[in-house]
Specification:
heterodimer; A: 407 residues; 10-stranded mixed β-sheet; 20 strands; B: 262 residues; Rossmann fold; 4-stranded antiparallel β-sheet; 9 helices; globular; binds adenosine-5'-triphosphate; binds magnesium ion
């Protein structure tokens, strides 16, 4: 176990270390101060965020059909509560105070010295959530979390730790959003996921930033024997720059990771989004699927699969649609086999809408515009297996909400 | 309503046939595809209730004619006109023609990923169409949730196209080789669907008409046609009794067909 001191030293040493991808941001351009927001005991008492603003981040203000909620505005945790047995939600700071053992998970799935952004989270005042499903616990309803930025030029530092204990299931819907009128702002979000033996985490995340926002999430996932981690990531609204490359390590036999990403880049947006899975135990499997659409922005859609032992299976699928000639989609699928008997494949395709398909639908009575929109929605309509029905419905609803505005 | 407007209310049926209105008229049609002249001077007139068939060798321009009638921009009309009823539709985009009642069955429709057959059928459906029932009739019940045309076999594509057309219920039905690649059993299904589209079993006066491209003529065993046309090198070289034409083509080939008009 690292001592805190060691962690601090490593963070300090990485304070100026640029990330390998995405534009390099000047951290000095942001501020740490934001007004303190007061805590509310029930989400409905929250005055700062309306129903609609929360809905954009996938959060239901009434809390109905949710097993718990966490809301952070700028640097303040304004609400956190678990409503079902077997679930815990705390702010990460609270949790670290409460549980000594938690330090054993702290910066273990993500390296503190990955780059200057991880270092900045450690060195600055951070908040974030701790979520945990106790052994064997399963809930019907998902937990919801919202990270919101309201203060201009604020740097939001977040460190989340999510643990699904043995045999448990944890479903999370999370949204990150910012005030639309924000000219500049930075979100730094570290998330460490631990999926224990036979456990399962589904993590559905919708990003709704603003044109001036820069966003650098840093996620690491460790999946043990027979565990499953599933991420569904949707970003359709404008953002200035967004760069993430979550990495899942499958360390136990038969562990599985699935990443699905849906990216729509508006003009002026720069997105560099990848997913990486390292398969280091037999019978592990992984799937990375992304759909990227540019309406004028830049997208790098990356994927990296590393098979370290034999008997693993993985597939990477990367498809891009260019709807505006100013747009760029750069698909970078990587397969890295380090053992005999790995079964890894990828497919990537980037192009524009096929005129033939548009005409086909026009012959059925759809105008050109309607035909294009039908095809685009179809393109984004990735079948996601393994989501509980309720979550799948939620996901569709959230997608529709975003699509309406984005497309 | 229709019969009233045409002044046919209760009149003699034979007499009614005499003054059937023309639904689709193609006049001196010249069409280019990617700068290549494919059709030069096609004339065609289909009256209400009629079924026409179109024969012709591979590459003669049959599909091109259908695509031009549907109005796809790749099939550029350089001369001539197309009328639907009284209206000149030569300049209308495909969806406007579809909305006015022209429907087409594609020879090779594209796959649209993420759009299910059920969805596309719903998109082209008139109100109150029993999609499930139609799909069951065409043995496509299990296909409704699949992406349209994705991994469909040749015969399944034909039935999926017919399902869409049945939902759309167009006045003018354009069918591009509906029987090719269909096995004997499914041929019956296909035949039945086309009969329905063209109101072949209707006792009242029919309001639908159609143009069917066929090589084999098998479809004529299910759907009787009124007029046949032979298209050679982008022009209609013969119009007449479809059975006789088919017989002639079988016996002497298209070359004779082309020669006979000279
Ligand atoms: N997109 C295109 N680009 C170039 N040539 C084309 C294109 N579409 C059709 N053609 C040409 O136009 C001619 C007529 O084609 P068309 O498909 O109309 O023939 P067809 O009579 O339907 O033949 P078949 O019986 O084989 O279906 C052919 O020589 C064909 O190669
Ligand atoms: Mg053809």
């Amino acid at each position: 176990m690292h001592t805190l001191r060691e962690i601090e030293e490593r963070a300090r040493a990485a304070a100026d270390k640029p990330a390998p991808y995405g534009s390099d941001l000047d951290l000095a351009a942001y501020i740490d101060e934001a007004p303190e927001r007061s805590y509310v005991d029930s989400l409905e008492q929250l005055e700062e965020l309306g129903e609609e603003e929360l809905a954009r981040a996938g959060v239901v203000k009434s809390g109905r059909q949710r097993s718990g909620s966490f809301v952070q505005i700028d640097g303040s945790v304004v609400h956190r509560k678990a409503l079902e047995k077997g679930l815990e939600i705390l702010s990460t700071r609270e949790a670290l105070e409460k549980y000594d053992w938690l330090w054993g998970y702290y910066w273990k799935a993500v390296a503190v010295d990955s780059d200057k952004y991880t270092a900045a989270v450690e060195m600055g005042p951070y908040e974030g959530y701790f979520m945990r499903a106790l052994p064997g616990s399963r809930t019907i309803y998902p937990l919801q979390a919202c990270l919101y930025i309201r203060e201009p030029r604020f740097v939001q530092r977040v460190h989340n730790i999510i643990i699904a204990e043995e045999g448990s299931e944890l479903h999370i819907i999370t949204g990150c959003a910012s005030e639309h009128r924000i000219q500049a702002g930075l979100h730094l979000g570290v998330s460490e996921f631990y999926v224990k033996k036979g456990a399962r985490i589904t993590f559905t995340m919708v990003h709704n930033w603003a044109e001036g926002m820069d966003v650098r999430p840093r996620s690491g996932i460790v999946v043990e024997e027979g565990g499953l981690f599933m991420s569904n990531y949707v970003v359709m609204e404008p953002v200035r720059s967004l760069q993430l490359y979550p990495t899942a390590r499958l360390v136990g036999e038969g562990a599985t990771a699935r990443f699905h990403a849906i990216l729509v880049a508006q003009p002026g947006s720069e997105m560099d989004v990848g997913s990486r899975v390292i398969l280091s135990a037999p019978r592990c499997s992984a799937e990375i699927v992304s759909r990227a659409i540019t309406k004028g922005g830049y997208i790098a859609a990356r994927g990296h699969i590393r098979g370290e032992v034999g008997g693993v299976r993985a597939h990477l699928e990367c498809r891009g649609l260019i709807l505006d000639e100013r747009g760029v989609i750069h698909a970078v699928p990587e397969l890295e086999g380090r053992a005999e008997d790995v079964d890894m494949s990828h497919e990537a395709a980037v192009g524009k809408i096929a005129q033939e398909e548009v005409e086909y639908l026009m012959a059925r009575g759809l105008s050109e515009e309607e035909a294009v929109s039908t095809i685009v929605r179809g393109f984004l309509n990735v079948k996601i297996e393994g989501l509980p029905p309720l979550l799948e419905r939620e996901m569709r609803r959230m997608m529709e909400l975003s699509e309406e505005k984005a497309l | 309503m229709d019969t009233m407007r045409l002044g046919l209310g209760g009149g003699d049926l034979e007499e009614a046939r005499e003054d059937k209105e023309t639904v689709l008229r193609v006049e001196d049609l010249h069409v280019e595809v990617e700068g290549r002249r494919i059709l030069h001077g096609v004339n065609l007139e289909i009256k209400c209730g009629e079924t026409h068939v179109l024969f012709g060798p591979n590459g003669s321009g049959k599909t091109t004619l259908l695509m031009a009638v549907m109005g796809f921009p790749r099939y550029r009309v350089t001369r001539g006109r197309i009328f639907l009823g009284e209206e000149d539709i030569t300049g209308l985009p495909p969806h406007e023609r579809a909305r006015r009642g022209i429907g087409i069955m594609f020879q090779r429709p594209p796959t649209v990923r993420g759009v299910s057959l059920a969805q596309i059928v719903a998109l082209c459906s008139r109100d109150g169409v029993d999609v499930e029932g139609l799909a069951a009739d065409l043995n496509l019940g299990d296909f409704l949730s699949r992406d349209v045309n994705h991994g469909f076999s040749g015969g399944e594509i034909k039935r999926s196209e017919l399902l869409q057309l049945l939902a759309q219920d167009p006045r003018v039905v354009l069918l591009d080789e509906p029987e090719s690649g269909v096995d004997m059993e499914n041929l019956q299904l296909v035949g039945r669907a086309i009969r329905k589209l063209l109101q072949k079993d209707l006792r009242r006066r029919r309001t639908r008409c159609g143009l069917i491209i066929t090589h084999t003529g098998y479809i004529l065993d299910y759907v009787e046609a009124d007029v046949g046309h032979v298209l050679c090198d982008g022009a209609i070289v013969c119009s007449g009794n479809p059975r006789e034409q088919l017989e002639g083509i079988r016996r002497y080939g298209f070359e004779e067909c082309a020669r006979c008009t000279r």
